[in-house]
Specification:
binds alpha-D-glucopyranose; disordered N terminus; TIM Barrel; 2 domains; Immunoglobulin-like; alpha/beta; elongated
Length: 447
């Protein structure tokens, strides 16, 4: 099976599942600062972590088992009942170094953790609300431990922070289903925005250098474009080097000419073609849910996950691959296994992912990335006959296998000037083998 088919498969299985039908891809980032974006572009691969009170409920409420991190909203859990879950948050097995270690071993360079999801619960010791880690039996500041562990391991800590909040008394609008039990009397959205800013201030002042702020839940009408603009600026003021995703931006009645954010965030998809000149990151789940669901064992295969990583890199984007840790503080076994398998592949082939740019080939039966004077070809099918490198204008100095630099596939040129690669011997990797083409100068590929 080729990478194209492999990469499409997860999406056909996932179609229509997501909590909401949001595809936040409409915003075009403004001119980014190359220096600030450099580490992120180099990274290409990060870990998304959805962890909170919903992880304790594990996707189940009153006999139904298809919930995730949206459980309070989708199962209509009354606020008081959800508040009760705070007392059950005691993940005694949580070990930030172990989590970050698994990310690092998988070849990931950053970790984006839910400092607060839509339910409003904060995984950090938020001085502005008791609805946070401080009120749990656990008490330890998860964000602090994760930020410190990331830095020890050389990874960038990043915060996912929801703008929408189903808990704060000043947040508006209320969910329709709880309008009667949670009246809006006295609610003041401006005060909520001050709370949000105060939370962001703590996240960007108290935890050292943060790689990215990843906002979400920005789609309700109360969050305006102007508010998004202000929040973007506020983040940059607090940490000039922080990068901010496009979901910081709010709605506007008029056409937005100054969309906010440094990178786009396609969700559960890899865009059909990349977006040249635009930074983007596809966020994708390993199974069907972002938050832990004990009943969801519908995990993508290692082949599919490696395929997604190769696909995003070859289109010039990043992959933010999700793990939904369990209530005890451990990762689901399926996630642990898949991360380890991706790590085995990345230890051999990671150089063809990290620090690369998009494929130069417009239309080829293989995926590819570029790095300076090098082209990497990703081969899922080990061709029996010569593989045409249609459009390649430069002649490689050498061709080799990334897994075995002493093996040199032959490159030949036919009468019409097309070059071909002849691969002998067995494929070095059962999932995806990488061929390296080295040139004397940056290679050229035409139509
Ligand atoms: C959606 C969902 C949310 C999830 C996010 C990840 O916006 O609302 O639950 O965290 O996607 O991209």
């Amino acid at each position: 099976m080729g990478l194209g088919a492999m990469a499409l498969d997860p999406f056909s299985r996932l179609a229509g599942f997501s909590g909401i039908g949001l595809s936040a891809t409409s915003v075009f980032p403004p001119g980014q600062d190359d220096g600030r974006m450099a580490w992120w572009r180099e990274a290409r691969f990060g870990m998304f972590l959805h962890w909170g009170l919903y992880s304790i409920l594990a996707g189940e409420w009153e006999g139904k088992t298809n919930y995730g991190e949206w459980i309070r909203n989708n199962a209509h859990i009354p606020l008081a009942a959800y508040d009760g879950v705070v007392q059950r948050f005691n993940p005694t097995m949580f070990d930030a170094d172990a989590w970050v270690g698994m990310a690092k071993d998988a070849g990931m360079k950053y970790v984006t953790l839910t400092s607060k999801h839509h339910d409003g619960f904060c995984l950090f010791d938020n001085e502005l609300t008791p609805f946070c880690i401080r009120s749990t039996p656990f008490q330890r500041d998860v964000c602090r431990e994760m930020a410190d562990a990331c830095r020890r391991a050389g990874l960038h800590p990043c915060w996912y922070h929801s703008i929408m909040d189903w808990h704060h008394p000043d947040y508006l609008p209320r969910r329709d289903w709880e309008a009667a039990t949670r009246p809006v009397d006295g609610a003041n959205y401006e005060r909520y925005v001050r709370y949000l800013r105060g939370s962001v201030e703590q996240l960007l002042r108290n935890y050292g250098e943060i790689g990215a702020m990843w906002f979400d839940g920005q789609w309700e009408h109360t969050w305006t474009h102007q508010m998004g603009r202000d929040l973007y600026r506020y983040c940059r003021q607090l940490q000039p080097s922080v990068i901010v995703n496009n979901r910081v931006d709010g709605w506007s009645a008029t056409q937005i000419t100054d969309p906010q954010g440094d990178f786009r965030t396609p969700e559960q998809e890899v865009p059909a073609t990349g977006w040249p000149g635009v930074d983007w990151e596809s966020c994708i789940t390993m199974n069907r849910n972002w938050g832990y669901n004990a009943h969801d064992h519908d995990f993508k295969s290692v082949e599919q996950l490696i395929g997604l990583l190769v696909e995003t890199a070859s289109k010039g984007g990043n992959l933010l691959l999700n793990v939904g840790p369990k209530a005890d503080g451990t990762f689901p076994e399926e996630s642990v296994d898949r991360l380890a398998a991706m790590g085995r592949w990345m230890r051999v082939n990671g150089d063809a992912i990290h620090g690369t740019t998009a494929s130069l080939f417009a239309d080829a039966p293989f995926r590819s990335t570029t790095k300076g004077t090098r082209i990497h070809l990703f081969l899922t099918d080990w061709p029996a006959g010569p593989l045409k490198l249609t459009g390649l204008r430069s002649v490689p100095r050498t061709a080799s296998l990334m897994a075995d630099p002493d093996r040199h596939p032959a490159v030949t040129t036919d009468g019409s000037g097309d070059q071909s690669l002849t691969l002998t011997g067995p494929a070095p990797d059962p999932v995806c083998s990488v061929v390296v083409l080295d040139f004397d100068r940056p290679p050229e590929v035409g139509a």
